Amino acid sequence: MKAKSVSIKDINRNQIYKLLRQNESLSKQDIAYQLQLSLPTVTQNLNLLLEQNLIANTGTIGNTGGRKARAYSCVSNAKAAIGLDITRHQITIVAVDLSGNVIQIKRKNEPFERTDEYFRLLGMMVQETVKDLELEPSKILGVGIAVPGLITEDHQTVFYGKILDFTGETLRQFAKYIPYPSILINDANAAGISEMWVRPEMTNAFYISLSTNIGGAVYIDKQVYTGENQKSGEIGHITIVPDGFPCYCGQMGCLEAYCSASLLADAGNGSLEIFFNQVKEGKADKLKIWDQYLWYLSIAINNIRMLFDCDIILGGYVGAFMDEYIDTLKKLVSLRNTFEHRADFLLTCNYKTEAIAAGAALPFIKEFIDQI
Ligand SMILES: [Zn+2]
């Protein structure tokens, strides 16, 4: 019986904390009313949360005619997690607070190498970030390392890493100089976690990362569906044109060969920004490339919609430019759709640059919040 009463207490405390997260500040009475808990229960749990510095008294809330009630709020920076986004030429590091806000971001141009020097640099970047945040090391929940590769279920090993030629690389190496709990995570899965985080009402979604490489992630019931073998959502390698252009993976006609961001960047002197400026200016050759890109993308999107019947979020480098073209893309997609005349299930990403790094950090935040 004792165990049971403890667990109910834990549930109450967790509910109180989560309610406070959703509100700027609340009084004890507000909390008791909204959660249908007794005032002593609320008081007891608020005191526990205050002791742990997870919440604070933040002034008073006016009651009409009555005494002013004390207000409680969450302390967002009570803990933080760190996320790294490793790409071929760049390292992005972010720190995320308990609200999921990115409170620190840094980028470094550094080509990926499987050397001790490189992994030491990762460690230094983490240490620097912790120092800049002026947070005690004990407040750092963990470090998520997002990489363009497929990761084993235990988050320890890259089992397919053709993009960076790092198949077989381990967390032990990546985190050799990182003195915090760490995980490896697939980059597209991480980016999708960020997008789901800012849409708490969303239960199911498919996230497409339209970057140099194309990744995807399936979210069912708010969880990443990784598949039986951690290979789900690999939308970059669905066949879009039978026996079409060669893909780096060795197959022909993959979506990646038609919708990689590099195809657009190459047409814009190596810059996506230049490319999209030229599209805006109406340059005929660039418009043609962009139209073709959207056309192939619409095939992939329609296939995803037919399979999953859920919202589809467009992210990655190209997703960040998609707001202006989303209506055009929606039209192309709806023309292919057997059941629907509108493609309002198609959404552009909220995070424009740091989705992957933030999403690598968020699992630590979520885990912590769930156990409060
Ligand atoms: Zn492929």
UniProtKB/TrEMBL annotation:
A Gene Ontology molecular function term of the record: kinase activity
Pfam families the record matches: HTH_24 (PF13412), ROK (PF00480)
Transferase is among the record's keywords: yes
Keyword flag DNA damage: no
Example of a GO biological process term: D-xylose metabolic process
Alphabetical keyword list: Carbohydrate metabolism, Kinase, Transferase, Xylose metabolism
Free-text function comment from the UniProt entry: Transcriptional repressor of xylose-utilizing enzymes.
Similarity section: Belongs to the ROK (NagC/XylR) family.
Protein name: Sugar kinase of the NBD/HSP70 family, may contain an N-terminal HTH domain
Organism: Paenibacillus uliginis N3/975
Top-level taxonomy: Bacteria, Bacillati, Bacillota, Bacilli, Bacillales
